Amino acid sequence: xxxxxxxxDLEALIxxxxxxxxxxxxxxxxxxxxxxxxxxxANITDDKLAIDRLRQVIAIQQEVKRLLAxxxxxxxxxxxxxxxxxxxxxxxxxx
Length: 95
Prior knowledge:
By secondary structure, the protein is mainly alpha-helical.
């Protein structure tokens, strides 16, 4: 997989209606689940267990958001790679 085809694939993914529906569904579904799980953790009488559960829920929430953000972040990384590959018009070359 070349950076150009990967970039094109990711651009097509992000622009697709299916991705937009999936991302919206995942975020809305997770928001309701997060509230539900946080409430359950708050009802645990053992404070250490409650905090551990809440930490797990927060970690999962961060991972869901990280996965949904990956295509955009990868596109940004690929854009940086393309800029590095671009020939320099400077007579001194790259600094």
